[in-house]
UniProtKB/TrEMBL annotation:
Molecular chaperone. Has ATPase activity. One of its GO terms (molecular function) is unfolded protein binding. This is Chaperone protein HtpG. Its main location: cytoplasm. The lineage of its organism: Bacteria, Pseudomonadati, Pseudomonadota, Betaproteobacteria, Burkholderiales. CDD domains: HATPase_Hsp90-like (cd16927). Coiled coil: none annotated.
Amino acid sequence: MDNKQTHSFQAEVKQLLHLVTHSLYSNKEIFLRELISNASDACDKLRFEALDNSALYEDAPNLEVRILIDKAARTLTIRDNGIGMNAQEAIDHLGTIAKSGTKEFMGRLSGDQQKDAQLIGQFGVGFYSGYIVADRITVESRRAGDSAAQGVRWTSEGTGDFEVEAIDKPARGTDVVLHLREGEDEFLSAWKLRSIIGKYSDHISLPILMQKEEWDAEKQEQVVKDEWETVNKAAALWTRSKSDITQEQYEEFYKQISFDSQAPLAYTHNRVEGRSEYTQLLYVPAKAPYDLWNRDKRGGLKLYVKRIFIMDDAEALLPSYLRFVKGVVDSADLPLNVSREILQESRDVKAIREGCTKRVLSMLEDLANNEDAAKREQYAAFWTEFGSVLKEGVGEDFANRERLAKLLRFASTQADDGAQTVGLVDYVARMKEGQQAIYVITADTLAAAKNSPQLEIFKKKGIEVLLLTDRVDEWLLSHLHEFDGKPVQSVAKGAVDLGALQDEEEKKKAEEAAETFKPLLERIKASLKDKAGDVRVTTRLVDSPACLVSEEGDVSGHLARLLKQAGQ
Ligand code: ADP
Ligand code: MG
């Protein structure tokens, strides 16, 4: 290669450079995440190519990233001993946009600064993000397997063009040297860099090394020592094989990410392959957080892309009714710079959400239906903490409605203590001969539900009625019309038809009574003209003279009271 060639950036690169440096400034520290991720990719590529050519490791088989600070020169260097680039690769990869994703992005640019800045969040910006903090970047690289003399130096101010020259580079791999802009000296602080690495790159499986610093009392300053230490944890728990992880390690990790001091109730760890590739490590906590009721609260999942931290509380990864679940999703498909807005629309995310939802439901089913009584008790404990939130799912998650309905637990007229322990499967299993519906009653309190006159006939006939006293129960009923082919019927609504449960004589008596009392009913109806829609003779009462019921399809008395309280 002739020494020093000047090349012009591809037109799209110029546009992208301008956009990146201007619109990502508010979140400038991400440049380090991007450059470390490139270093990590380069090491992955070397590892892959070395599978059939181990000579590529030369004499340095330990893949690693080193971060070097030069305060005098005001440079920050990200060094890796990965695959490296030859001159042509440097020209191609750093001077043009070959990635289809970025091309698509360029095609969608509108020229409107604000809109474009939003767009950029959806695509990886990669190498060029270095120009947010640097006014010149020098890349020195040598491809694995090439001779020391085949090294390349690429350098550019990130405006119109870049220079390439041949250099001697004995060490394999790539140095990316950032010449920091005026005012960006914070990135010369080892402490600052460590904190950024801790935030974004802790779980990169490669060691990231920095030089130790020591306080020199004589010079009165921090001096850099010739001793290196690993500053990231370098092993993401979820990337390890299940069989290598102990329960204690799983629980410790949970405590770290959830800030919960108690062990979780259950967890699940899987690698999913196929249409969408990702790893999930999901936990069900033992205790509800104080703000569980806040539906705006973001979910508890952390999103990683190829072991690089992207964001906390990625609510798009699970439906809102599973917002109590904590854990990590690591996707192999999403771009690094994915934004919350994009997460909501991405098809990959949709697949992840469906997959995670199924996993959480399986975890709960496993507890609820376990042969081990201790596990079933854990489910009861779970229900006490999170049951009311899970109920939201019946209305929100149509695809899983049946599974969710089986997980519901209610208080019932068959259990004295009022504990929510009866599932719909149990209820249906012990329905009376000829009983066609699942009977429920809603009320503000358990006592009100239990003593409702509307229950009299059911008590007399020994028919079980579920007692619903949670605030979300009315809403639940408006979505849970049937279970296992049996209609769910509120005993406080309409003319409860006991159907086959009523014998012929009772029916006849009721009809006769309706005839006899017709004139009386007319008079009561007339005097309650604006207050009651209808007045009927009923067989549902045993001891009480009268009771109020709602019309079928109307809001129930309980809901009407709730709405009134809420000022509606
Ligand atoms: P992406 O990483 O998404 O491909 P980048 O803009 O981050 O996009 O990087 C562009 C390309 O430059 C990479 O695909 C790779 O070929 C090359 N590259 C960047 N950094 C390195 C590195 N440290 N070692 C080897 N190649 C690199
Ligand atoms: Mg990259």
